[in-house]
């Protein structure tokens, strides 16, 4: 294996690499040993802390699976609402009318600048009995979905805009030349191609949304996957084991989505039918949740 | 309408100051940790590459909320690691920084890695032909150019980090989001005004960062 930075290793470099590997293994082993012995000291490695996840089906049917379902439900609903909304905002930002462009631009920039957690807290307060009186058992759910929609529709608007702008100029010119009107050009020519181009970016946005649902569990009492750690740990007093299992579930689900996104990206880039414009996951500016971006939550 | 600001009951500026401090400490930490990770991911040693890849994929797919709550419940409350913090306030702040660095480092790493790819192959080849070692090629030739290429993506990471510091509210760090939650509960008649105050605070924090670093990115970009 050779790369920009180094040649294929010769005999000497191979020995050196083995030495580095050895040093790394020893250091990593020391850290791991220290962590495990600390956990052992506090009784977190005892078998009865971990076996319930294998032997006790109730832990899954009562807590983990319902929690995961809530997470997926909120994430999917937020995506389904944010997608058309974001598309409309994205198109609005490309409008020929300066007024529309400015208004939509301000809206999008504003909601992109506010942490998604604050949008959730605000929605939750808005749905309170004094103002809108959403039933208290579904209020956290709707607050989380509203926060996610407000934030992610703004992010999706930017993806849509970038998707349309990534198309070759000739596409719109050709449509104009055969006499299509502005709306027709957008709906028949530009959007279908832009949607294909931004599919990978949209799938990876779903990961950001799923991760952000965890905020609702921590601060609004939304019964999603992460919030289950409190109930499980209260029953089995295995905080660390529970955290591990919950993290694992998130990683598996999100990793599947990430893999799907990069598979789509590769497929789209390889296919000759499209214009070749593809917006990869990396081109979405918000990696976090709020990790917005490059770093969402 | 905004009279809750004058009552002296809420220290809005103080809360935003904690947000700024969280951002700054975490930004420095993630920059260092992200650079180390990027170095690992491009290194000639397969084991280091494997560790870097595994770390980035695992941590990036974990909610930040889980990392920060994990630091608090797991590290601090269960294992008793308080990172040298004496009081509850200090401990919470340090744990939040740890969680933010662990998380944001992966995004810094990925941004840097894409920057490394913008450096022409010939540069590294020439450096190797001069007899520089991998470490020298990386630190003297490639990384300085890579950093200049990724100022704009890193600015996005920094803005995301600023917004992500609100997650520290989940473990009781007295930053902006926690104060907002408290105020929304106490000032139910002024929901919009409270939101406006905190929204403005964040726009004021993130907008100049974006503009300033966008300008810097244009200034320092390597013209090719």
Automatic annotation (TrEMBL), chain A:
Domain of life: Bacteria
Compartment(s) of residence: Cell membrane
Transmembrane segments: 18-36, 74-92, 104-128, 140-160, 189-210, 240-264
Primary subcellular site in the record, as a coarse category: membrane
This protein's UniProt keywords: Cell membrane, Membrane, Transmembrane, Transmembrane helix, Transport
UniProt topology in membrane: Multi-pass membrane protein
Record-linked Gene3D superfamilies: MetI-like
InterPro entries: AA_ABC_transptr_permease_3TM (IPR010065), ArtM/GltK/GlnP/TcyL/YhdX-like (IPR043429), MetI-like (IPR000515), MetI-like_sf (IPR035906)
Pfam families the UniProt entry points to: BPD_transp_1
Domain ABC transmembrane type-1: 68-261
Family affiliation: Belongs to the binding-protein-dependent transport system permease family.
Protein name (database record): Amino acid ABC transporter permease
Lineage: Bacteria, Bacillati, Actinomycetota, Actinomycetes, Kitasatosporales
UniProtKB/TrEMBL annotation, chain B:
Cell location: Cell membrane
Coiled coil segments of this chain: none
PROSITE patterns listed in its UniProt record: ABC_TM1
Keywords: Amino-acid transport, Cell membrane, Membrane, Transmembrane, Transmembrane helix, Transport
Membrane topology, from the record: Multi-pass membrane protein
Domain ABC transmembrane type-1 per the UniProt entry, residue ranges: 16-213
Superkingdom, taxonomy of origin: Bacteria
Transmembrane segments: 12-37, 58-79, 91-109, 129-147, 190-217
UniProt xrefs under Gene3D superfamilies: MetI-like
SUPFAM superfamilies registered for this protein in UniProt: MetI-like
Pfam families in the record: BPD_transp_1
Family to which this protein belongs: Belongs to the binding-protein-dependent transport system permease family. HisMQ subfamily.
Protein's UniProt name: Amino acid ABC transporter permease
